[in-house]
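Dear colleague,

Thank you for sharing your sequence with our group. We've completed the structure prediction you requested, and as agreed, I am returning the results in plain text so they can be pasted directly into your records. Please verify that the sequence below matches your submission; if there's any discrepancy, let me know and we will rerun it promptly.
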Amino acid sequence: MAYRRDLKQRVRDRYLDVLASIYVYNEHRGYTSLDRVLEAVRKRCPDDLAFIAAVEKHRADERKHYLMFKRYYELEGRMPLAIGRTCGHIDHFISIMFGKPIDALDTDAIVADDALFEKLCRVIMLTEKRGMAQVDILLRSPLILSNTKLKAIFKVVERDEPSHWMPYEDWLARNHRRQPRWWEKLVDLRIHRELMLVRIPALFLNWRMGRMTRWPDSDDRIDLSQTGTAR
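Please find the predicted structure tokens below.
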């Protein structure tokens, strides 16, 4: 019985470790990628101050979430698992929709091309809606509810999430641009299911996976224009 209890605890701890590590990666990937989105929005919509402010808030929230998960690991006295883009929803979505990784996106081309800018808005909107739905599921999980630190973090994420997709949906509507079509939603769903059914279980079972040796934000550039959110 003691062995079974120990095994159950190890599985529980492993699940929470993998989950929190994925959020460390995705939240950092989120706010650093939004630097490029914010640059595009400022150039394309210089007079749409409300939209710019909403994207700035989105970026600030993503960094805030990253710092909360970072602090979680600091209090645990260990580093997150060394998870990369294999578990990045936005990484896969951008690669499929634009044919290139996030870091290779041409900001000037997106600013100059209506179709590309609209596509970017739809991708972000769908990704954030997916994230909001996932947080709702996590906050019903007994494993999360039993961990007061993670529960508190996800409560903050839950509160912030609606403001992350609404501005992009609103911009599309105000400018009479189309909303996501069924096939774009299907791509989003396919990525989500692949992550949940294949990639994340593979990470869970990879007990030899190492941990990060340095924090992802170690190389963040200092940008005082980011409403005080940069390091």
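Summary note from our side: Residues 125 and 166 are 7 Å apart (CA to CA).

Kind regards,
the structure core
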